[in-house]
Amino acid sequence: MFDYVLYILMRSFIFFVNCMPTGIAYAFGRLLGRAISVLACKRRELVRANMTRVFSNTKSFEEIDALVRNFYESFGMNIVDFARLSRASKEYIKGTVEFEGLDNLKRAKADGNGVVLLSAHFGSWETLNAALAIEGYAMGVIARPIDNPYVDRYIERMRSRFGNDIIPKKNSVRSMLSILKGGGILGILMDQRASWKESVEVAFFGTKARTNKGLASILTRVDSVVVPIYIHRTSNERHRVVCLPKTELQRSDDREADIAENTRRFNSAIEGFIMAHPREWFWFHSRWERRKYTG
Length: 295
Description:
Blueprint: H1 2-18, H2 22-39, H3 41-55, H4 61-85, H5 90-96, E1 97-100, H6 102-110, E2 115-119, H7 125-134, E3 140-143, H8 149-160, E4 165-168, H9 173-181, E5 185-189, E6 199-204, E7 207-212, H10 214-218, E8 225-233, E9 239-243, H11 255-276
Parallel strand pairs: 1-9, 2-5, 2-8, 3-4, 3-5
Antiparallel strand pairs: 6-7, 8-9
């Protein structure tokens, strides 16, 4: 019953946001982000600590403080994006999303060996998935099912409405290999801390971080191409998808060394996203040390 009540509240919020004119909806999103910053004060401490770790040598305390505020406003607008995406038409998405470097993906797809789109919890990543599918690049998206079954079913329908397939993260290796061997596209967000069993320790912004080694491990079994990709906001409802050149992979006779080095290269690509548009990353992650915040 509790799960169902949460589901109804989520659907009510989505309905409320979709009743607003566009400008008001995104002004509400910025206010919502500020409110979350105030109410979740312990989580804000983690955001600030992560930013300080990354930018302490390049930004002043005041600049980091401003970046924290900008991040929360961006986060609130991403919530609005998510709510509006549930009812958005193909025409609306095509009209609000532009592409940069799409030829990088076209060339990789033309190779016929499968493409991994390497991304992160960055910007309005749900809009990224929808926009690519509408552009003709539907993919298999790796996602962890949400604990609330009502919410999980709703979000899965939303994520797949333009042609993407949602692949549960657990025991996903066979499905991932099938997509790549068939010349398809696989979408992976690879910016969260992983468990010891699933990870390798490689640098992320100069500090060792437990990083999921699953993608690098799979790439020892196929000749697929890895293309880093991210989305960032250019105005209220408008976004730009940036598709970067493929990541050169190390392929040698030392499998473990290849896994570690390629995972490091994936981290490096995500670092580039963050440095280009720092307010857009999901700074809530305990990316380096394991921490739990309830605020």
